[in-house]
Design goal:
By secondary structure, this protein is an alpha/beta fold. It has helices at 15-25, 38-44, 59-66, 77-83, 109-121, 138-149, 170-175, 189-202, 216-247, 251-259, 280-293, 297-324, 352-362, 376-386, 391-397, 404-408, 428-434, 450-456, and strands at residues 5-9, 30-34, 71-74, 86-89, 126-130, 156-160, 180-184, 211-215, 333-337, 366-370, 398-400, 413-416, 440-443, 459-461. Strands 3-2-1-4-5-6 form a 6-stranded parallel beta sheet, sandwiched between helices. The chain has a 6-stranded parallel beta sheet with strand order 11-10-9-12-13-14, with helices on both faces. Helix 9 runs parallel beside helix 12. It is globular and about 75 Å long. The termini are far apart. It binds uridine-5'-diphosphate-xylopyranose (2 copies). One uridine-5'-diphosphate-xylopyranose (UDX) binds next to helix 5.
């Protein structure tokens, strides 16, 4: 089966970059990314490609190369669905904030909405590809909706094709993935044909030995498991970091020593103020919820501990700041370098910075935030979302500035929350001179040169040292 027309529902962090690369690599396939958010679509269509809504190194060039040729961004969801022979669903699946499974289960209302729309509109056979991360067995729910509503005689095949891209390296991860995973109905010829159609698309630029095909459930579970394993590594090294701080071991040295064991491997062993991002916590909560719903309490508890450790790491970072600043930060000024959940992205979802700020604001600190890519309104949105204090109080106690040297002026302490490269290149002597003394640096990412900073006169505190 040759695919000529693809539609993707959801122009977010996953849908946007994935479809841009797909269109770029397959000039003969028309790719339309639809979204119900008009502003988002307008931003993707911005005449100046550097202004697209998602910041990812290399992405604007990819968009420039394909947009208007075979890559389109639109709010006309109906047209997109009707024309396509393959539809990717890439809408968001936040953790439920109400009802059964509140705080744990994924909210599938957008997925269901998309499935219902497809069912109502389709007049020809379609391959539906789940791109969103979903709880295991969601494909069967989608299939149920499609088979029961589809009144126009169209037939549907459902594939699971989880996305493993990491933000900040999305374009590279899409161009050179470690593997592509495609789950489908391997028991029928139609199912295998649909799988093959998607294999053929990725096969244009990915080596076929890196394209894995599995049944749908394995594919869905692999995505949750991959994120849980990655997050677990971060929590593991963070647990060791606290022990290092008590024993005069250095977590970087420990990470290096264990990482050289090829069975352990050296990646994802950076101690930090805690992991963030839209996926890790949500996917683990999902895993916990699914395990619990099957009565597997020990399995659920095992994975829940990864999140518990992460919350502890964020909280102890802010507690340590208070402790070092003579047990009070009331009316003291603390400069935040970084707000994004990692470098090279403007995404702030679940960023450790939000929680550290919230804790310090509870202690009546004043915070000045500088992040090279995060907009002011986003910082306030993140804080207001926690509902800890009024929006006016957040604005009063926390300011966002667009100059790092302004952020640190007259500050009692600096907290590094994101590992942006530019922080390493600052004039730290100039920063020191403009701060109140003793000048503290709390490096939540271990990116600064401790020795150099101490020579300048800073009191430096990293993680796990
Ligand atoms: C993705 C995945 O889909 C999610 O499952 C994964 O865990 C994280 O990454 P992401 O692309 O980051 O989500 O989400 P987001 O940036 O919020 O984009 C989703 C888009 O879908 C939004 O632009 C939203 O407007 C759109 N949407 C949502 C629709 O077009 N229709 C809907 O019904 C719901
Ligand atoms: C993750 C997965 O890596 C990706 O495969 C999946 O598709 C989506 O979820 P992402 O959340 O974009 O990607 O970023 P990632 O690089 O995994 O980092 C997640 C968080 O862990 C960040 O806050 C990062 O700073 C933190 N982290 C990562 C550490 O603290 N230490 C590390 O060693 C690695």
């Amino acid at each position: 089966m040759k695919i000529k027309n693809i539609c993707c529902i959801g122009a977010g962090y996953v849908g946007g970059p994935t479809m841009s690369v797909l269109a770029y690599k397959c000039p003969d396939i028309k790719v339309t990314v639809v979204d119900l958010n008009q502003k988002r679509i307008d931003d993707w269509n911005h005449p100046d490609v550097t202004q697209i809504p998602i910041y990812e190194p290399g992405l604007s060039d990819i968009v420039k190369g394909a947009r208007g040729k075979n890559l389109f961004f639109s709010t006309d969801i109906e047209k997109g669905i009707i024309e396509a022979d393959m539809i990717f669903i890439s809408v968001n699946t936040p953790t439920k904030t109400y009802g059964e499974g509140k705080g744990m289960a994924a909210d599938l209302k957008y997925i269901e909405l998309a499935a219902r729309q497809i069912a109502a509109l389709a007049t020809s056979d379609k391959i539906i590809v789940e791109k969103s991360t979903l709880p295991v067995r969601t494909a069967s729910a989608i299939k149920d909706i499609l088979d029961n509503i589809g009144g126009n005689g169209a037939k549907f095949q459902i594939l699971s094709n989880p996305e493993f891209l990491a933000e900040g390296t999305a374009v590279q991860d899409l161009l050179n993935p470690d593997r592509v995973l495609i789950g489908g109905d391997t028991s029928t010829p139609e199912g295998n044909e649909a799988i093959q159609a998607l294999v053929d698309i990725y096969g244009r630029w990915v080596n076929t030995d890196k394209i894995l095909t599995t049944n749908v459930w394995s594919s869905e579970l692999s995505k949750l498991a991959a994120n849980a394993f990655l997050a677990q590594r971060v929590s593991s090294i963070n647990a060791i970091s606290e022990l290092c701080e008590r024993t005069e071991a250095d977590v970087n040295e420990v990470a290096k020593a264990i990482g050289m064991d090829t069975r352990i491997g050296n990646k994802f062993l950076k101690a930090s103020v805690g992991f963030g991002g839209s996926c890790f916590q949500k996917d683990i909560l999902n895993l916990v919820y699914i395990s619990k719903s099957y009565g597997l309490d020990e399995v659920a508890e095992y994975w829940a501990q990864v999140i518990k450790m992460n919350d502890h790491q964020k909280n102890r970072f802010s507690r340590d700041i208070v402790k070092k600043l003579y047990n009070t930060v009331s009316d003291k000024k603390i400069a935040f370098l970084g707000w994004a959940f990692k470098k090279d992205t403007n995404d702030t979802r679940e960023s450790a910075a939000i929680y550290v700020a919230d804790n310090l604001l509870n202690e009546l600190a004043h915070i000045q935030v500088y992040d090279p890519k995060v907009a002011e309104h986003q910082v306030y949105f993140d804080l207001d979302y926690l509902n800890t204090r009024s929006s006016d109080e957040n604005k009063e106690q926390l300011k966002v500035v667009n100059d790092p040297y302004k952020a640190v002026e007259n500050a009692h302490a600096i907290a590094v929350l994101t590992e942006w490269d530019e922080f390493k290149t600052y004039d730290w002597k100039r920063i020191y001179d403009s701060m109140l003394k003793p000048a503290f640096v709390f490096d939540g990412r271990n990116i600064l040169d401790k020795k150099k900073l101490e020579e300048i006169g800073f009191v430096y505190q990293g993680i796990g040292k």
